[in-house]
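Model the whole thing, not chain by chain.
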Amino acid sequence: MKGLRVIIRKELSDHFSSYRFLILFALITMVSLITVYMVGLNIRNELEGIAKPRFVFLMLFTSPGALFSLVQFVAFFGPLVGLMLGFDAVNRERNQGTLSKLLSQPIHRDVVINGKFLAGVILITVMMASILLFIAGLGLLVVGIVPGSEEVSRMMIYLLVSIIYIAFWLGVAMLFSILFRSTATSALAALAVWIFFSFFITLGASVLANALADRGDAETTESLIKKAGIVKAVTLLSPMELYTDATATVIDPRRKSARSVIALGPMEQISMSRFSGPLALGQSILVVAPHLIFLVALTLICFAVSYTVFMKQEIRSI
Amino acid sequence: MNREAVIVTEKLTKIYGGQTAVDRLNLNILEGEIFGFLGPNGAGKTTAILMLMGLTEPTNGRARVLGLDPARNPIQIKAKVGYLQENMGFYPDLTARQMLRFIAALNDIPPESVDGRIDRTLDAVGLAEEEQKKIGAYSRGMRQRLGLAELLIKDSKIAFLDEPTLGLDPDATNRMISLIERLNRERRMTILISSHLLPQIQRICHRVGIMIKGKMVAQGPMETLAREKFGVGKETYTLEEIYMKYFQES
């Protein structure tokens, strides 16, 4: 598309020279390095005396260090990156009067927002990739184990999913920057959505589950399962939950289900223990495919809405 | 002299939410002329320009700019037509050269010829010495001249100037007006200028149109309008007198 590269280049140089991005990047890099360093030390202690461990390398990302694992960290703070990159993408241009200048150049209108979105995605990619490489390098130093090909491919999938996940939040932020004229309003709205999905939806889900499930005297196994099912169904609306489930399964080969509660009788437990080996990569992907598809769909829907709203806005109001 | 009409509109109408912003506008602007677009604020001048740029679609009627329909071929029109909007914005962190480079890239100007072009353009608008400064540090007059430079870098055949002198001090205003006149004379740029500075408009415009409440109430060379309003006897007149007369009558 004509002009797309120009817009992307301009946006990237804007981002890279903005303090807000540098501060955020420094912060995230620092925290992930610390997390992984602590995880690495723990792993070394735990692995004393065990022969030929499998997938130790991936434990760098999944096992909680002092507070949380890297996967959890990205699930929680990754959205902030997306929001920061996008919350003023369109309305800042509108407020400083450069949007109508851009639009009176010979480019299609959608090039402006495609360019902004793609530039954001490129940045997210650069950021996530460099964080992962940092960690991988540090892992090599601390743990001293070279990742195998399967571990590398799991890491790549994790990278891809993380990019999609943060891109979703970029899409949300850009949507608000199109809808609201003031950058403060769009930032607050985007933050509100983030907080809603990270804190309130879990609360709301259990409230809803309690309301919907049977109010019997004793808590039977069935009612517990039903409750857990409702909680899960509601929280799956949250991209954060989708992401956590999907990445945890991809990056932890020992996980076989994205579900948190599984009804197990004694026989099932016996049969499960017979298959306690790690899942093959293809099987892990099968388990999380619905999550991934839903996450991609959410991202696309969000971008499509921004796109339609932006294309239909009257120029006079720009 | 038989000149080609570069902007033609027929009954061009724009209705925003039940309100008629532009009402059956008929324009006919010839190549190489400066057309003064007058009228009180909110008369629909900007809306008319937006329709001519293809930035907003007309509700009714048709327009032709350089033989193209702005509603259908906005990209081709934007490549040839420049628009200096009212209260135009810049990226405050860029220098004039970076800004012009960005505009040039958006207009597909071959990169190898860009720098020479920017040099000449900055010279023409008198910003050659300030090119390393960030635009955030520019005065309003300098910004407006940079806006003109953006039209020059893409070599616009037609320029829509919406209130180019708004908020400028007298010196900057004069500089801007002479610059506009020179662009028209030297580059044969067709210029449609909307402004409230009637004496300056009178000085540079070949023809004027007066728009009130979305309707074009008068259009033509100043002598014609004066004759229409004051009769043949009056030798000296100012655009201001003509304008006020039309304004009071409507």
